[in-house]
Amino acid sequence: MVHATPFLLVLSLAMLAPALSARKSTPAQCVLDGRWTDDQSSIMTIEPVSAECDLKGSYVRDVPETENKLVESPLLGYRDCTDQTQPIFGFTVNWKSSDSVTVFTGQCFVGEDGKEVLRTMWLLRSHEDSIKDDWKATKVGTTVFTRQSQEEE
Questions:
Q1: Residue 28: Cβ within 10 Å count
Q2: What is the value of pTM for the model shown?
Q3: Model confidence at 83, in pLDDT bands (50, 70, 90)?
Q4: Looking at residue 32, what is its pLDDT?
Q5: For 136, what's the count of Cα atoms within 13 Å in the CB-facing half-sphere?
Q6: Which residue from 3, 77, 107, 145 could staple onto 118, CB 3.0 to 4.6 Å apart?
Q7: How far apart are the first and last CA of the chain?
Q8: Cα separations in angstroms, 144 against 65, 78, 84, 118, 119
């Protein structure tokens, strides 16, 4: 029986190791709702996500050519309900300051520093009066949003 004790100890550790390493690799929860800021100092607000995974909110950006400068535009979209920790999502913004609409798609991540970030790719479609100008109507880009701190709200 004395010889069995080290064997049982090693066997127990071998059985526990996968469970312990799985806990370490589970990503932290990333929550979409709240206030987010992009690199242009625009503010996006996403309301609490519905049970159907609908997104609603607003996007406020500084528009220099307008009198009020800050223009709020509606945001509508969806998030994927299958990934509860770092969800993928898509939304559309109907810009009130111009004849354009932008669609965003991306994923919510929690970085190694514990901070949430939304990494997105977008297509912006502007209105053109002629089909010959269609070539210049769509722009493509990326935007990274960071959660706005409590002090900034």
A1: 13
A2: 0.76
A3: low
A4: 93
A5: 5
A6: 145
A7: 66
A8: 24, 18, 20, 6, 5
